Amino acid sequence: MIAHVRGKVAAITLSSAVLEVGGVGLELMCTPGTLAGLRTGHEATLPTSMVVREDSLTLFGFADEDEKTVFELVQTASGVGPKLAQAMLAVLSPDGVRTAIAADDVKTLTKVPGIGQKGAQRIILELKDRIGSPSGRIAAPLAAAAAPWRDQVAQGLIGLGYNAKDADKAVDAVADDAGDLPDVGSLLRAALRSLSKA
């Protein structure tokens, strides 16, 4: 199995990143939080988990080992596949997942698309004794919380008729203006201005 990938970031899409490793472009499926930390043309090292299916080999990339560990652990619950595990980490940080499961917090888990009340209860029941306690790290939740604005701005631009490549460039152009509490409306306007200049 492929434990991690290190290489130059060749491309970033809404749901994946392509890392060039030894002349080969490897596509890694990533959460918005992980993608927010990558820059095209820069070197990156991502822990990875390979999911092998009859008809596909899919490589998932993570911001750190903790995210990878939680991704692999939640898949041991019945009914949780790699896409749902990734959705959990897109909505909640690794510690957020641990806290929700440890506290029997069905409401928080049902915020994840694809998890209903019964699914959340089953996940809590099956993982409560194995998920461990929150690590107390602040960095991961902040990174996860900062990411959704990027997706919202990009989707807004695509909805206005721009292609995904131009939308991603515009999002990168306004990323420095986001600050701690991003205002999606003003960032979208700034992205539109940067596109009109180009």
UniProtKB/TrEMBL annotation:
A Pfam family this chain is assigned to: RuvA_C
The entry's keywords: Cytoplasm, DNA damage, DNA recombination, DNA repair, DNA-binding
SMART domains assigned: HhH1
Q: Please provide, in alphabetical order, the Gene Ontology terms of the cellular component aspect for this entry.
A: cytoplasm; Holliday junction helicase complex; Holliday junction resolvase complex
The UniProt annotation puts the region (Domain III) at 145-198
Q: What is the predominant subcellular site recorded for this chain?
A: cytoplasm
Q: Where is each Helix-hairpin-helix DNA-binding motif class domain found?
A: 72-91, 107-126
Where in the cell does this protein reside?
Cytoplasm
> What Gene Ontology biological process does one annotation of this record name?
DNA recombination
GO molecular function terms attached to this record: ATP binding; four-way junction DNA binding; four-way junction helicase activity
Q: What domain notes does the record hold?
A: Has three domains with a flexible linker between the domains II and III and assumes an 'L' shape. Domain III is highly mobile and contacts RuvB.
Q: What interactions and quaternary structure are annotated? A: Homotetramer. Forms an RuvA(8)-RuvB(12)-Holliday junction (HJ) complex. HJ DNA is sandwiched between 2 RuvA tetramers; dsDNA enters through RuvA and exits via RuvB. An RuvB hexamer assembles on each DNA strand where it exits the tetramer. Each RuvB hexamer is contacted by two RuvA subunits (via domain III) on 2 adjacent RuvB subunits; this complex drives branch migration. In the full resolvosome a probable DNA-RuvA(4)-RuvB(12)-RuvC(2) complex forms which resolves the HJ.
The record's similarity note reads: Belongs to the RuvA family.
Q: What biological function has been recorded for the protein in this entry?
A: The RuvA-RuvB-RuvC complex processes Holliday junction (HJ) DNA during genetic recombination and DNA repair, while the RuvA-RuvB complex plays an important role in the rescue of blocked DNA replication forks via replication fork reversal (RFR). RuvA specifically binds to HJ cruciform DNA, conferring on it an open structure. The RuvB hexamer acts as an ATP-dependent pump, pulling dsDNA into and through the RuvAB complex. HJ branch migration allows RuvC to scan DNA until it finds its consensus sequence, where it cleaves and resolves the cruciform DNA.
The name of this protein is: Holliday junction branch migration complex subunit RuvA
What organism is the protein native to?
A: Nocardioides humilatus
Question: Which lineage ranks, top first, belong to the organism behind this chain?
Answer: Bacteria, Bacillati, Actinomycetota, Actinomycetes, Propionibacteriales
Q: Name the gene that codes for it.
A: ruvA
